[in-house]
Amino acid sequence: MPAVYTPTMDRATVTATFSRRMRVRLPDGAEVDARIKGKRLKPVCGDTVTIEPLPDEHDWLITGVDERRNELTRPNASGRIEVLAANVDYVCVVAAAAPKPDWFIVDRYLCAAELMSIGAAVVFNKVDLDGGPAAGELEVYRRIGYDVVPCSAVSGAGIDELATLLEGRRSIIVGQSGVGKSTIINRLIGAEIQPTAAISHKTREGRHTTVSSTMIPLPAGGEIIDSPGVRDYAPALQSAAIASQGFREIRRAAQECRFTNCWHLREPGCAVKEGAETGEISPRRYESYKRIVNLTRKLADGRY
Ligand code: GDP
Ligand code: ZN
């Protein structure tokens, strides 16, 4: 008996999402609109999915989601874990000369990247403006081992360097609203992206709404995920103890800590605490670590 062959079933990559509406890229590169079979499946940008065309319909149907290599997650307002993107290689955290950098947000994203075991860059945009080049802070990240790119999406300074870092990878671009993420993407692709166009105008909902997440191909290969709806971010940690794994320099210093099960907070003689006192660990980064530990504890108590 010949093997069952379903020529219509296919594999695809999710390239844009708005709620339960999806845009997916087929193996031949064509993009189609899709909806999701049932209520259980929750595909996100970056997912590999199984998909089939629907007879007499514009939409395709997503019938399965592959196991993920990693996912960027956060707790939503009700404390439930929400996945922002899947199968990501690199996190591009943007801060800028204006609005005033919130380094705690930067640290939270870096912590998430660390826990996904992927690399990350700190991109400092709008260097064409006065308002402090943040050289000291950037040096802290360089010393820890992060890629650091001062740039200007307006003048173009540093954009080539950023493009090289992003080449051939699937990255996600994150950071405070207004730091210039959209402008940087436009500069990288040399065109204006139209987020709402990612979901076809042929779908009823698409016209009135913006996408919650979209993946844009880069000219030199690779792609970048933009989630314009994400205003604030806290990594979803299973326990506060995991927070120390999210800070490279704290993880390193923790190996020298003579206490097992040390929170590295107030324990006298803790190697991490001492590192922050001598300046070997940036006191500001240490502060971020402590805030994340406390945030996670609150979350665990339902006080978030
Ligand atoms: P997003 O919210 O992070 O996507 O930020 P946008 O890309 O929408 O940019 C916010 C504002 O900053 C816009 O008015 C941009 O024109 C401006 N902007 C972006 N990049 C630069 C830059 O490198 N220099 C200056 N001076 N302004 C920029
Ligand atoms: Zn300790």
Give a written overview of the molecule.
With 304 residues, the chain is an alpha/beta fold. It folds into three domains: 10-65, Beta Barrel (OB fold (Dihydrolipoamide Acetyltransferase, E2P)); 71-226, P-loop containing nucleotide triphosphate hydrolases (Rossmann fold, 3-Layer(aba) Sandwich), CATH 3.40.50; 240-299, Probable gtpase engc, domain 3 (Ribonucleotide Reductase Protein R1, domain 1, Orthogonal Bundle), CATH 1.10.40.50. It is built from seven helices and 13 strands. It has helices spanning 103-115, 135-144, 159-166, 181-189, 248-254, 271-278, 283-300; strands at 10-18, 21-25, 31-36, 48-53, 60-65, 71-75, 81-86, 90-96, 119-125, 147-150, 170-175, 213-217, 223-226. The strands form two sheets. It has a five-stranded mixed beta barrel. A two-stranded antiparallel ribbon has the order 6-7. Helix 1 (103-115) crosses helix 7 (283-300). The structure holds guanosine-5'-diphosphate (GDP) and zinc ion.
